[in-house]
Amino acid sequence: MKAAAPEVKEDVTRLRLRLSGAVQGVGFRPFAFGLAARFALGGFVRNDAQGVIVEVEGDRAQDFVAALQSELPPLARLDGVEISEIASRGERAFVIEKSRQGVARTRIPADAATCEQCLDDLFDPQNRFFLYPFVNCTHCGPRYTLTRRLPYDRAQTSMARFAMCADCARDYADPLNRRFHAEPIACPACGPRLSHRPDDIVAALRDGKIVALKGIGGFHLLCDARNAETVARLRVRKSREAKPFAVMVANEASVSLFAQPSPEERALLRGPAHSIVLMESRQSLPDAVAPDMARLGVMLAYAPVHHLLFHAAGGARDAANEFVLVATSANPGGAPLITSNEEARQKLATIADLIVTHDRDIVVRADDSVTQIVDGAPAFLRRARGFVPEPIDLGADGPCVLACGGHLKATLTLTRGREAFVCQHVGDLSDAETFRFYRESAEHLLRLLDVTPQAYACDLHPDYLSTRFAEESGAPVLRFQHHAAHVAAVGAEHGVSGPLFGAALDGHGLGQDEFGAPGGNWGGEVLRLDGRGGFSRKACLSPLALPGGDRAAREPLRMGVAAFAALGRLDEAPGFFASHPEAAGLAKILAARPAPATTSLGRLFDAASALLGFARSQDFEGQAAMRLEALVRMPRPLENGFWLRGGVVDFSPLLAHFIDQKPDPREGAELLHGTLIAGLGAWLSALPRPGETIALGGGCMMNKVLAEGLAGLLRAKGFVPLLARKIPPNDGGLSLGQAVLARAVLARAMLKRE
Length: 754
Description:
Elements: E1 14-22, H1 28-38, E2 42-48, E3 51-57, H2 61-70, E4 77-86, E5 94-96, H3 116-122, H4 166-173, H5 198-206, E6 211-214, E7 219-224, H6 228-238, E8 246-249, H7 252-255, E9 259-260, H8 263-270, E10 276-281, E11 295-300, H9 304-312, E12 325-329, H10 341-347, E13 354-356, E14 370-374, E15 377-382, E16 392-393, E17 401-403, E18 413-416, E19 419-422, H11 432-449, E20 455-459, H12 465-471, E21 477-480, H13 482-493, E22 500-512, E23 518-529, E24 535-541, E25 544-545, H14 551-554, H15 556-566, H16 573-576, H17 582-592, E26 597-598, H18 601-611, H19 623-631, E27 643-645, E28 648-650, H20 652-661, H21 665-685, E29 693-697, H22 704-716, E30 720-723, H23 734-753
Parallel strand pairs: 2-5, 6-13, 8-11, 10-14, 17-20, 20-21, 22-29, 24-28, 29-30
Antiparallel strand pairs: 1-3, 1-4, 2-3, 6-7, 7-12, 8-12, 9-10, 10-11, 14-15, 16-19, 17-18, 18-19, 22-23, 23-24, 25-26, 27-28
């Protein structure tokens, strides 16, 4: 947030500025020093636990204030600027004062990709950083992933063990040097070392080897993306049969060799995070890279070592380079990302042919963030490296809460004042090591922000390990319905604090009856939040049977048979699914005793995928829906493909069409998406008044076709649709919604006591 320039009296010559936001570890003090020199001002700049204090005096103090806000360093962000007029001290020199300690109220920026100036240094034979794989400055490099606690000083990072050489110490102490107080500063004479030469790593990759490379937030598994045999071998070794791999390319010029990025996607690629960006594939890479997908996840080289690999492969710095790497997280068996050298040697020896390490410890593991452009703006599928720990502004101070998220795609959110800090993507808590990582993430957030929560917030589901974590805390525990938290998360990031309509469209969440008791399988709901932590359920999707409970989410055939049950045509299911003998048994079970029901849109996608020929088990969550999305060229609704009945939208006519007409998968996928957009749009627009805001959350909103179509239709009907932008719409954003709801409940309780 850029603060508005204040009005300053003409005769005031000394100003005191209190600055908050991302203002430490980003080159802010030398920036202020340079501005003061430009405008011939005296005074000082100083870090403290709250942020940055600047005092300036001289005839051009107002020019300093304006330039400070309009010319920020690349990684800096101002959330607040408080300015007061104070008496002149007659100072003519401007100095950078020593930091002052205290209770931490500032923050550190996220890790940032190597800047252009450091790339100049990296490839300049006359520079002391020539070909050094850990070059960085105040504008780039690791921050969050190497910091143990605040304030952000070298002694609090994993660089503490590396004593600076005379050259680095001189740069570090020089206010006019862009490495002034760059805490990770190092060079070949004094810094971390890579275990293998880039030339040797590239030789192994060209030879069809799989390489484990230690990077910024953990290890990557790399291989030559153009070598189909090697990519297939990586899938077998990593036990990742079909989930798409991301690829890394040398530079923006290389992207067009493998994908067709839009201007917005190019801009997202170039951002400081250099996240993975989904974009249309040219289908020039082996199918094994992203099986059955129309889009490809692409990221630019973002660490110096990545640039050195592409350089060693023979590419010029800015020229298109056909050397392209699969770059996937080194997390075997669904465990968390590997960060330590010893763990890599133990757990990656059966996957990687070469393990490349370095001796700078990774303090906080962080996967690559995954993003896409939806409805004209960036959106997250996974939020981690490059964005965490940037907070979300909640608009007003409130109680401190630690929200524990869900069970899949787990994250935690810790609030401090008006800020919500959502931790990096953690993952599926069913894995014991991932649950340990989850605990580590909570401890790190609490230590970094130096706060004590008044309460813990969690899901209603009693069996989620995140719920048990909250219960074991010893603090008061507040439980919230899954889909209310989804809607609250989207509203919170858009600054909505009062009552709000929203749709939560996902795979599963434990429901809640009108008396507050948990029960039922929800996933296609319209809710109205009351702005005080409560909600009411206004509408839902027509229920489908859920044969086998959680198994139905892994086996689309089960939901296909459930579609026949919904239509009263169970006797036809064995014939329709003739190549799947288990369909007959499922039909008999459903005919004999009703299964639990679900209103989930995710399970409706599974039912449609089974009817359209994708009935086998899913290798990863959402695979069937992603395959259908990938087939869509132009969504088109089936005439009379849904019914609206008293707040319930029923897509039985569409399912019946799939059974009777047996459209090919592409036609079926286009009818599915078009009919869902039309039906959900009609369903949603029948509830609130035109002009109202409608939040759209839940994992199904990661479907670009559905999200854009539904948002566009609601907008055309006069509503204001809100899509998740700062957090993922799936369970990765659930903790933010829980935190917001908990703060509302606590604030209401405090008012009652007063």
